[in-house]
Amino acid sequence: MRFRLVFIVFLSILLFYSTAHTNNQEQDTPNAIQTNNENSPKIVLIIIDSLMDKPLKKAIQENKAPALDFFLNHGRYHNNLVSSYPTMSVSIDSSLITGTYPDKHKIPGLVWYDENEQRIINYGNGFFEMMKIGISQFTEDSLYQFNNVDLSSNVETIHEVLDKSGKETASINSIIYRGNYEHILKIPKVLAKTTTLPEQYKTFGPKILSLGAFIRQDEKNSHLFNRLGLNDAFATQELKYLLEQNILPEFTIMYLPANDHFVHRKGPETIEGIEKLDKQLQEILNVFPNWNNALDNMVWIIIGDSPQSLVKKNKKEALIDLREILSNYNILKLDELVRNNDELVITANERMAYIYKISKDCSMHDIASRLQTDERIAWVAWKENDMIQVESGDQKGALQFKPKGDFKDIYNQNWYIKGNSSILDLTIKTKNQLKYGDYPDGLARLYGALHSQKGDFLIVDAKPGYEFIGESSPEHTGGGAHGSMHKNDSLAPIIVTGTNKSIDDLRIVDLKKWILDFLE
Asked: What is the mean pLDDT of residues 295-299?
């Protein structure tokens, strides 16, 4: 019983990365106030999982978020920072630190199928999926392979670039942290002795790396019991330590995960998570003689990674079981090796999913046609020759597109477009200008996801209110979920204080360049 208890607790602890409401607005730029005249302020980027505009404003109005209110009142605020796609934390954060979409950084989502290894990669999507895939493989993927193997070596992280220019950086509790310095992640002894896990993993990160009980800067940091330190209190203590010891580097990323768990359970309207995380931010501000001193020669960037959409309460209505829709195909089971008669692999990432065709006898068009019969699915997309094909059961025809053409969007990206553009809610204005509607930066984000990996596969995206499930996927009926490309899952808030330098484009993928331009 003791072994089983420790085993289950460890599994649940490691599932800290779940995954990851505003009207679409025209692009604008956050020109924050200037609080200090020094040329080289230090930058702290705080990522708050599933932070959303409406509950943030509600918490502030009810005086339950004084720290966030302070930052907002001393900076500029925008509620339409475009996330990456899929809107799952691992893909988003990979885009953040590499400045690229998944076609370049090669992290397709929280769950995906590796054609080369012929197995499902799962970075932490639900207890039962972890059990079936296996704790050893999951631990290897999340603690080592993610940063050191899967994240493409053809892209540079912000930590790697700044290190080359002589700038020191830090990462606190962000699972995506690759840098130039070798570190040892130590498995707590009680877990190493009661499981088959090794005692340590070698990894590469920034000069200063904190990741819960696996590696920390403050040896007196006692916030290790909740999710092995992968929690807001641990991260807060680590940042306080860097500030108090006067060793804060030029650039620091800190990740706060707890709000995500509240939103998944209680839905997008809850402010409970914001109220709790704000107390952690208050602790950070209290390190300074007064809160205003936190603005001296400091740039604070506070962002949400992606919002969540409300999932309907009725399970039968809300949950789209892809196994049922594709029941005439042989679908690979999570705990089995690929067999000769297997035809499809399903990896559900909450409100989006990848469907892989692993048999040459299957037709992409037939699979897409079956998926379009479910009215809860917004659209289906796949690669066809050098084009991307997008179809919807709600609309006639198809949309085809690829980069480089006569149409230009607000991000100065050029596209060739053919067919029914309304499937992705695109409006073509005068002089071939494209305007995005329900799917912000939809062409680039969908292109990125469809070129994120090898193999023949389709993407399905759910309408608001619905969520995909596979064999053992987690479900969030009555709560919140993300993953889709819809604006409900894609537009996050951003607060910037301490600089008047504008961000050219309000996209998470553009923050790396803005920070590098600022520091270099």
From this structure: 95
